[in-house]
């Protein structure tokens, strides 16, 4: 493995060594994608997109002074974060509340756009829609802030008349998982993909024959490996200290995406939601 100064930029490292054609393609691809795609990219993804072998990726990582792709990705994301910091107003000229608010909303919009591309480019959302529409029972599992995402999905899909349940207390989640079986769908949500209580409920549901859907920001996590279907949040550089928050905002948007996919598949479900709207409308009159 090459010995470079820790703060030497990725591009400077690549320029300092002799690269094979396959390695140059990898470098060009890594420099040409968004931080959000980079955040969820695996060696298999990079191999497929760049046309280079996984051994070429490993060799390039070592040439550039990184133990592997994971560390190379982290360095690129950190570099992007430093560039973002460099674009902020100079010392003594702090941003006003309006500029800060605009920057936050633009970061949310960029992350949402990346999530939209991921959903459009892969068939998982269609499979999930089919599973939810035909499920005997649907249960949601998540802890902490991921429980807020579960609650958002629950509140949207229960309006369609789907047999969906969510309990925030984790022992109750395991209880619900214990009652699941074939024909049921379990949605487990964890940013890290490693939350112990969520993994416990997910494992119990799958052992009982339910289909397990994992939603996380870590494509190689324990939850992703365990799931029958996995959706990855487009993690990546964003505002300082905000990566998990931005991902969770986008994950809440997934609730509306699922709602619209389901009503497009079965208009009768939309009729159920309209009936609820009419009920609340009568109460306001």
What's the layout of helices and strands?
Layout: H1 10-15, H2 21-32, H3 35-40, H4 43-50, H5 54-63, H6 69-86, H7 97-121, H8 124-134, E1 137-141, H9 145-157, E2 164-166, H10 170-178, E3 184-189, H11 196-207, E4 211-216, H12 222-226, E5 229-232, H13 243-265, H14 267-284
Parallel strand pairs: 1-2, 1-3, 3-4, 4-5
Domain SIS: 128-285
Keywords: DNA-binding, Transcription, Transcription regulation
Domain HTH rpiR-type: 6-83
How would you describe this structure to a colleague?
- This protein is an alpha/beta fold and 285 residues long.
- The chain has a five-stranded parallel beta sheet, with helices on both faces.
- The chain has helices at residues 10-15, 21-32, 35-40, 43-50, 54-63, 69-86, 97-121, 124-134, 145-157, 170-178, 196-207, 222-226, 243-265, 267-284, and strands spanning 137-141, 164-166, 184-189, 211-216, 229-232.
- The model has no long low-confidence stretch (mean pLDDT 85).
- It has two domains: 10-86, Arc Repressor Mutant, subunit A (Orthogonal Bundle); 118-284, Glucose-6-phosphate isomerase like protein, domain 1 (Rossmann fold).
- Helix content is 62%, strand content 8%.
- The longest helix has 25 residues, at 97-121.
């Amino acid at each position: 493995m090459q010995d470079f100064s820790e703060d030497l930029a990725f591009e400077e490292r690549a320029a300092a060594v002799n690269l094979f054609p396959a390695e140059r393609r990898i470098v060009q691809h890594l420099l040409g994608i968004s931080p959000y795609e980079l955040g969820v990219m695996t060696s298999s993804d990079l191999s497929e997109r760049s046309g280079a072998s996984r051994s070429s990726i490993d060799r390039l990582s070592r040439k550039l002074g990184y133990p592997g792709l994971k560390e190379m990705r982290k360095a690129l994301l950190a570099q992007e974060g430093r560039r973002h910091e460099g674009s902020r107003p100079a010392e003594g000229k702090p941003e006003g509340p309006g500029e800060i608010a605009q920057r936050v909303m633009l970061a949310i919009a960029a992350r949402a756009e990346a999530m939209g591309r991921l959903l459009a480019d892969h068939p998982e959302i269609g499979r999930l829609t089919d599973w939810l529409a035909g499920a005997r029972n649907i249960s949601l599992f998540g802890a902490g802030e991921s429980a807020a995402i579960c609650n958002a999905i629950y509140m949207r899909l229960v309006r369609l008349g789907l047999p969906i349940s969510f309990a925030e207390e984790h022992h109750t989640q395991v209880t619900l998982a214990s009652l699941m079986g074939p024909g049921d769908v379990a949605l487990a949500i964890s940013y890290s993909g490693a939350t112990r209580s969520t993994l416990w409920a997910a494992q119990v549901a799958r052992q009982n024959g339910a289909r397990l859907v994992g939603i996380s920001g870590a494509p190689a996590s324990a939850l992703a490996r365990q799931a029958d279907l996995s959706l990855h949040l487009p993690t990546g550089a964003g505002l300082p200290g905000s990566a998990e928050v931005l991902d969770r905002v986008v994950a809440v948007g997934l609730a509306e995406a699922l709602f619209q996919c389901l009503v497009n598949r079965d208009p009768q479900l939309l009729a159920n939601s309209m009936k609820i709207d009419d009920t609340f409308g009568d109460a306001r009159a």
